């Protein structure tokens, strides 16, 4: 979106940050786009404070554009906001194929972010990383991984059962995962050693399936409670269950712009 910064104060500066897991690169421009500073800072609490201090030493910060405010830049964006700096998320362009042998340039990317902060183009309000939405974000990510793990375990168990001796394959043939896994756990030990080994493998995967499903269900109950307490209108929407409501909450991030 286009952000109108209004009349820039005397000594106004505009900053951009290219973020990474271990370090962030800062570029600061003056009000007419001249580079004032280009420097690397560690992605640590002390590094965040040092970066903020560097921006303030350069002038009066009007906008600080940060790439990846929901990923590598999350901690930095949160700290800069706590320190009172005007933080904006810089929308990253689609990845372009780089010429063979060329490398990504952190200083160049930081300057690009700073120029977006200066122009007001390609900026958005950073999604909240605090409060109940952030709790939902973490729990939903874990729940999704558990559901995927359960599905993978069930698929592997069924594949083993299909190629196992009839003593194992027969009782499970044609069953869906939600029936086959409990059935496998309840089967008696076959006399044939090959069939017994196959059943042990299926049971181990069925136990993993059950544990993942139970853990996912516990997280879902917690997620539903958070959404119900934070924004019950989401659950009141027609056809919107707890998972869909949670995904909407995480996608929206900032509820000042959420209308019902």
UniProtKB/TrEMBL annotation:
GO terms for biological process: DNA transposition. Residues 94-124 are annotated as: Disordered. Residues 103-114 have a biased composition (Basic and acidic residues). Residues 15-160 form the Transposase IS110-like N-terminal domain. It comes from the Bacteria. Pfam families: DEDD_Tnp_IS110. One of its GO terms (molecular function) is DNA binding. This is Transposase.
